[in-house]
Write a structure and sequence with these properties.
5-stranded antiparallel beta sheet, 23 strands, 20% strand
Length: 629
């Protein structure tokens, strides 16, 4: 029997344990060496970069947004720097308690809290969100003294957009707003997310939106060495941002003021164009709004006031709202009839005060009619009967074909978003517009109403102004635009928006001369004579009145109707008649006759632009004026 306690056996067992332990140690060291080799050799570059990233922070440096200036250099949109108190929600355990404690140091109102909660709902991320903007120096000092108590809360210097003229040209300029999730999605889709790092705001409407790429600039970056706690130690490198480009507009801020003042409290729109270039001199939609309200994130009270107002101040009536043109349509009907060979200037009708078609009586505004009416007189006295008959003779296809050449019923392509197409009625349009077969049929009687600018006709003031500019410019068409040149603030170079004719309407000079002379006489002896009495220049124009609702054969009595049911007042014009420098279209909603309310506004516009005369107040309404629209 073997002695298990013999020294030889114990020595053998000990050696086995030593060998086994040595093998285990060897395997462990081999694994550790392999891991070290993997980390230090194979994955060296990756972990070296990770270590460097922990030591170095890449911080975005936001560029200054470009300025917006009018044609004479007046600043319409600029930037200013201010301190904001910002919270990083992910680093704050009890958000409401933190805000309550901050309110002991800095004035935080209920609207600030509401806006902060709204920003949390809409924000693309939760890096930092402002709880208060535009801190005073005293407020900054109070917070800095207690900063240690508020992890995740910082005071930062930010650039904010400012519109120094408040409501002036608000629909043209648009406004800025904080980047929300929808904006972030568009930015990512466009592949420019890196260029918006550190940027909280983006253009939301108007020129701010349309020219966002030009105005924003290029974000710069700083490499900053940081401690383990994230505190900056020193700047290692700096890539300067490239500031956004400035926009210089065709718009005349002085003229814009005159127009907005001329409207007073009335609703409506006006577009004025330089016929020889297509440059927009004034684009007004009334009422206006203050775009500064949107810069910090508009509060609930102001947002509700703007959205629930019966006057719809956020609506850009100049490019979006489409109105029946009324009798301002007649010069284009006459020009088209001459071009198509449907009428000659001397062709005259006997106007009994009505036109009978298909068993229906289409009435003129003047009881008993205007007697013998040729083309010139039809425009000067605005004879409906002449155009009822012309529409019946010409037909809807001919009318629609010519009016489309004048830019009616299609977008002009002006450089701001939100333009509508309006309605140029035709059988094809009606088939697309309505679903039921009985609604899709075009009736000959509908053509009669189209002939006087009523029926389905509906155009924006932008389209009407362009049509007048085409007429004033003898058929040469320029694309309307608001930006005259784009200025690179870094190099000082400018890119001009060169006005180039996009097409020419085939019009005979003798036909244009007939229409222009008739429009001149409108302001000398016709429906626009009172508004332009004593003018030292010769202006061509045409008044118009458009129904806001169907009278269904009843007599119009504006004074007895609710304001929203009264007719719209319109006026189109250009001046000087022999060398047009400005063409315009204006509408005053629910204001009655064009001669009464719209033409006096045009007179103030021409007096300022051509003579430099500044009006003392809103354009007066001519209570004695009468129209025969």
């Amino acid at each position: 029997m073997t002695d298990l306690h013999s020294p030889e056996i114990q020595l053998i067992r000990f050696r086995r344990r030593v060998y086994f332990a040595g093998a285990v140690v060897l395997v462990c060291f081999s694994l550790l060496f392999a891991r070290f080799f993997w980390l230090q050799v194979v994955r060296h570059d990756y972990y070296a970069t990770r270590a460097e990233d922990n030591r170095i922070a890449l911080l975005p440096v936001t560029p200054n947004r470009g300025l917006i200036l009018d044609r004479n250099g007046e600043v319409l949109a600029r930037n200013y720097s201010a301190y904001t108190l910002e919270i990083q929600p992910s680093r704050v355990s009890n958000l409401e308690h933190t805000i309550d404690e901050l309110a002991r140091l800095v004035n935080i109102e209920a609207r600030d809290r509401k806006r902060f909660r709204k920003l949390m709902e809409e924000s693309r991320n939760f890096d930092t969100l402002p709880i208060r903007t535009r801190l005073t120096d005293e407020e900054v000092a109070r917070f800095i003294g207690q900063r240690y108590r508020f992890p995740g809360v910082e005071v930062r210097a930010r650039l904010f957009r400012q519109y120094p003229n408040t409501e002036l040209a608000s629909h043209v300029l648009g406004y800025m707003g904080r980047i929300n999730r929808r904006d972030a999605a568009r930015i990512d889709e466009a592949g420019v997310a890196d260029n918006y790092r550190g940027t909280d705001h983006i253009g939301k409407a108007g020129l701010e939106q349309f020219y966002e790429d030009e105005l924003h600039g290029v974000t710069g970056f700083e490499q900053v060495e940081v401690t383990a706690a994230g505190r900056a130690v020193r700047v290692l490198s700096h890539t300067a941002p490239q500031n956004g480009n400035n926009l210089r507009l065709t718009l005349d801020a002085g003229l814009q003021r005159v127009v907005e003042q001329a409207f007073g409290e009335r609703r409506g729109a006006l577009v004025a164009i330089e016929p020889s270039t297509g440059g927009v001199l004034a684009l007004v939609s009334k009422p206006t709004f203050d775009p500064n309200l949107f810069v910090d994130g508009i509060d609930a009270a102001n947002w509700e006031a703007l959205n629930t107002s019966a006057d719809h101040p956020l609506l850009n009536r100049a490019i979006y709202s489409a109105y029946p043109p009324g009798s301002t349509f007649k010069p284009f009907m006459a020009l088209g009839a001459l071009t198509a060979g449907k009428r000659t200037p001397s062709f005259a009708i006997a106007d009994p005060g009505h036109f009978e078609y298909g068993g229906h009586l289409f009435r003129d505004d003047k009881v008993g009619g205007h007697g013998s009416v040729d083309m010139h007189k039809s425009i000067v006295v605005s004879c409906n009967t002449y155009y009822y008959r012309l529409a019946a003779d010409w037909g809807i296809d001919g009318i629609a074909g010519f009016m489309s050449q004048m830019g009616l019923g299609s977008r002009t392509g002006i450089d701001i978003e939100g333009e509508s197409t309006g309605v140029l009625p035709s059988p094809e349009w009606k088939k697309k517009r309505f679903k039921r077969p009985e609604q899709q049929k075009w009736y000959a009687g509908e053509t009669i109403s189209v002939g006087i600018g009523q029926g389905y006709n509906a155009y924006t003031m932008m389209q009407m102004a362009q049509a007048v500019a085409i007429l004033a410019n003898d058929g040469v068409v320029f694309k309307p635009h608001l930006v005259k040149q784009i200025e690179n603030v870094r190099t000082g170079a400018s890119r001009q928006v060169e006005p180039k004719p996009v097409r020419t309407v085939d019009l005979k000079p003798e036909h244009i001369a007939v229409i222009k002379q008739a429009m001149v006489d409108v302001n000398k002896a016709g429906t626009g004579a009172r508004a332009f009495a004593g003018a030292p220049y010769v202006a061509a124009g045409k008044t118009g009145t458009a129904q806001a609702f169907s009278l269904r054969g009843a007599q119009y009595r504006g004074g007895k109707l609710a304001e929203k049911l009264r007719d719209h007042a319109l006026f189109v014009a250009f001046a000087p008649a022999d060398d047009p420098k400005i063409a315009l279209a204006v509408i005053v909603e629910n204001a009655g006759f064009g001669a009464q309310s719209a033409a006096p506004i045009a007179r103030q516009v021409f007096d300022y632009y051509l003579l430099g005369n500044k009006p003392a107040g809103p354009a007066p309404e001519d209570s004695d004026a009468t129209d025969s629209e």
